[in-house]
Design brief:
transport (chains A, B); about 75% helix; sodium:proton antiporter activity (chains A, B); homodimer; Na+/H+ antiporter like fold; 22 helices; mainly alpha; globular
């Protein structure tokens, strides 16, 4: 028996196996998932495993090492989150999300830090040796909402899309703030004196860390898209690039002390659209499936490891400090959400209701990120107290809040997610409204969300698509793609029901009627009609739409040294419309 | 900049990225793959990389560590090979393959070992200090044909299926022999005296290592199949089990000093059939795709690493020894193939032609397994000579033999692989012949291949399927599955050409003609006809086939104490046939 030789991969495989089997066992009884969130059960499994290992070895295994967590377990989950991020609600609410993530997190850090420092002044609690800086450092790691925990709970309760994206987006984007504040306070703890310069440098770092992460992510994302242009002959390694480049973006960002989470999200969101168009359908299935599988396993492992690592002798149980930490976490988050939402609602038509505010505050779960950060703290005499407090906060939020949030959502009758996907009609309507709003913003000279979106779309189709897509000349609109997808699905259903016609069976052959009367000119009467007809109709429809749709005016900057505003453009536009109308007549 | 922190995953990712990009680059120019095998080019890339790194660092990176190779790079390739192993030609030629793998390898080991010992006795070469045991040890690692190298070359030259499986099967199954001989000679080298007992124990070990590997593999394979019975509610982690269990089988076998390669192949072949039936279609696409991707990357990495590791100061260039090693490798393999094939051909109708024999001998490529084994040798003063000789043999076989084998195959007009998949008619024919041959073997009392196959199939449907499959009661025959697959493919093609009929378009509605006239009884005239008709026809066909096919007689042992041979069974059979005939009339 030669166990030493295979130990590392063997134990990793066994842990993954345990996680997968726990997941299967959890789903075997249908009643269980509806009562207890999976994360709670997994932590429970971890606690049992940890107890067994601790009983046998007298020390808990170092499974939740912060390196393991940050380098191997977290990236798959964040990649999955970024890749499947619903981009429309995300960008529609980006302002609110950023406000919660940046201002909200800072508010929480300082709120929790200062109030805990107040508690430390109470002589009876014997905590006078915990300095303000240490409290702030602790605040910086305990304040951040955890994406893994939020995802695990919110995926099960199906609240409406906006609420979900607000909490989830915040939990992802606060990483930049957490990284900066945590590192700032940690270096302050080690410095003899703090100059005001250092504080200002800290503020500047926010932007560097966040925007740097976005930049790193986007550049890797576009490189990934560019690479997949050349994989036509070697389809089998296509999925690899999605994983390799996004992981590299994460590692590179971490290497330069930027926000890895922000980088990987930017990378995934940046490349998705182009990669999807370049790689084959089967490669894409593999990418999607494997990403889900990987993040699901990572997620399971994180909760089990959380349980395992809780067992041990790392804790100092000073109950006043621990209890007040939990209370302050709840209070400051609730206050922060109330205040910030007040400002958000003043500037938005579509306000956040008080029910939604409650769920946002209540859904601020803490998880494995805090846990890993607290173990990364430099050694000092009260580290074990911080570890204990963090463990209790995590267990409290995951167990108490995680288990009660579903009944609360039911009780408050929070607006749920719509069950069905939007109809094609709705989609067309939404797109039409986008154009309309871009037009209105254009006319009113307001540089709003739709203006920027339109600008971005123009830049995309003018430059990016030509560089990043293999066949950039005829990118199909999403409506046409949707139509094709529906056709394919319908065909498979027909085939499975055994109703597929093998002969010339297209309805259009039964008579001279066509769906689109404007295509009469293109009807060819030769015998190859049946082969080419429908693509022709499609192309023609696209062409007509492209030719006849009024192109949205590109707006120059409001002030221009060389032209008077509205000098030449309106007349050109009017002419353009006239020409189009003449043509169509 | 904090490179230390991310170094390990970053460098791994970069190596994989390099491998993938090299692969893309290789396929960008269409002419390249037709002239040079990919493996040669990858080694070349590795040599350049190794040169650069060596120039910068003054030492080559430890990328081709034997642990890395055996624990991480080899398993994916072997898993892929086992999972996609064409089982019919493999089992049809299993006897020949085993003969080549076991007897052939032993022949080569002793042949090369003893002749090199002879060379060592020549005073002019200054090799007298290399003992017989060391030569045999070297022979045991250099004799084995390498599956990775064989696969890389043979996948490109498309020889006929039998020839391919003979070389490839040998390269996989000789692992057991190599492991035993290598470990045996290594322990002999360290022992002061060798008793005859030890030699006999070595012979016994062959069976333990090989059969033990099969046992470990099959048990993990069946556990994997059993596990996938319960993944219905959690489709997303299904693909994971295929990888986890096969990797565990490999690691477990390695742990007990059994043949890991044999174990993982047994595991993959054992589980494939059941796993495929249990998991969803998309999961299966992911499994297949990911396996191919992984093995492709592993394969690329192995050849690049081979190149990288060749650069360095590990070599002792004693040219006579090195040249004679290459020559003896060629001669002994050619002789071995000639002698063994002579015996094989005496017992088979379908003989191996002399052209095939030449390709089998010439296709005996050496690769990364030898390379890793030679680095695993215990330190002694001539280790660097062995490393040099192994490197030269590998480069010679991969470059010279690998590059000339394709022209030789063309020149000799070796029978090629058929381009098209067998037609449905052929498949039915083959299956019919199987039944016929099982019947003939049954009648003639010969326990041949078909008898055992039939027996296995019976055991499978009676016990294994009930335990391992989720829905075991109605397993569809492969013909019906093929039909469904073709239907689905056809439907997608129709949808993509835009010819899908949306109305009632089945040809059978156009008239009362049916494909299968014996189904007239089942034609229902109600309006739901169009929905249920085709599945009905299918079910009915299956039912008729199942009812009317003459069940093959299960043969008892040829000698039975309680019954006279052929006592009661013939009359029962005759009766059965009569009843069937009456029914059908």
């Amino acid at each position: 028996l030669d166990y030493q030789h295979v130990q590392v991969p063997f134990e990793i495989t066994l842990w993954i196996m345990l996680a997968s089997l726990a997941k299967i066992g959890f789903h075997l009884y249908n009643k269980l998932p509806s009562v207890v969130p999976e994360s709670c059960l997994l932590i429970f499994v971890g606690l049992i495993m940890g107890g067994i290992i601790y009983g046998l070895n007298d020390r808990s295994p170092p499974v939740m090492d912060s390196d393991i967590f940050f380098l191997y377990l977290l990236p798959p989950i964040v990649l999955d989150a970024g890749y499947f991020m619903p981009s429309r609600p995300f960008f529609e609410n980006i302002g609110t999300i950023l406000l919660y993530a940046v201002v909200g997190t800072i508010w929480n850090v300082f709120g929790i830090g200062f109030s805990l420092y107040g508690i430390c002044q109470v002589r009876a609690f014997r905590l006078q040796d915990v300095s303000l800086l240490h409290n702030l450092l602790f605040g910086s790691l305990i304040a951040a909402v955890d994406p893994v925990a939020v995802l695990a709970v919110f995926e099960e309760i199906h609240v409406n899309e906006k609420l979900h994206i607000l909490v989830f987006g915040e939990s992802l984007l606060n990483d930049a703030v957490t990284v900066v504040l945590y590192k700032l306070f940690r270096s302050f703890c080690e410095m003899p004196t703090i100059k005001s310069m250092d504080v200002f440098a800290g503020v500047g770092k926010f932007f560097v860390v966040g925007l740097g992460g976005v930049l790193v992510g986007l550049s890797f994302g576009f490189t990934a898209a560019f690479t997949t242009r050349f994989t036509k002959d070697i389809r089998v390694i296509e999925p690899l690039f999605v994983f390799l480049y996004s992981y590299l973006s994460y590692l590179t960002a971490e290497m330069f002390h930027l926000s890895g989470i922000v980088a990987i999200i930017a990378c995934a969101m940046g490349m998705k659209r182009y990669v999807e168009a370049n790689i084959s359908l089967k490669s894409h299935t593999t990418v999607k499936y494997f990403m889900k599988m990987w993040s699901s396993v990572s997620d399971t492992l994180i909760f089990i490891f959380l349980g395992v690592s809780t067992i041990g002798e790392n804790h100092e149980w000073n109950w006043p400090y621990i209890c007040f930490t939990v209370i302050f976490c709840l209070i400051w988050r609730a206050l922060g959400v109330l205040v910030l939402t007040f400002f958000v609602n003043r500037f938005h038509v579509n306000t956040i209701t008080s029910k939604d505010q409650f769920i946002i505050a209540y859904g601020g779960l803490r998880g494995a990120i805090c846990f890993s950060l607290v173990f990364l703290l430099p050694e000092f005499h009260r580290k074990k107290l911080f570890i204990a407090a963090t463990t209790v906060v995590i267990l409290f939020t995951v167990f108490v809040q995680g288990m009660t949030i579903r009944p609360l959502v039911d009780l408050l009758a929070v607006k749920r997610k719509r069950e069905s996907a939007p109809m094609v009609g709705e989609q067309i309507h939404i797109r039409f409204l986008d154009h309309l709003l871009a037009g209105i913003e254009d006319i009113s000279g307001h540089w709003g969300q739709y203006y920027w979106k339109d600008k971005l779309e123009y830049f995309n189709s003018k430059y990016l698509q030509k560089i990043l897509l293999r066949e950039y000349d005829q990118p199909k609109s999403s409506i046409v793609l949707l139509y094709e997808k529906l056709e394919r699905k319908h065909a498979i259903e027909l085939a499975e029901a055994g109703q597929l016609g093998h002969g010339p069976a297209h309805p259009s052959l039964l008579g001279p009627t066509f769906l689109c009367s404007s295509n009469d000119r293109t009807v060819r009467t030769d015998q190859k009609l049946e082969d080419t007809q429908n693509p022709d109709v499609l192309d023609n429809m696209q062409e007509i739409l492209a030719r006849n749709l009024y192109r949205i005016r590109r707006m120059g900057p409001a002030y221009n040294r060389h032209t008077l505003p509205g000098e030449s453009e309106p007349s050109e536009h009017a002419k353009e419309i006239l020409i189009l109308r003449h043509k169509s007549l």
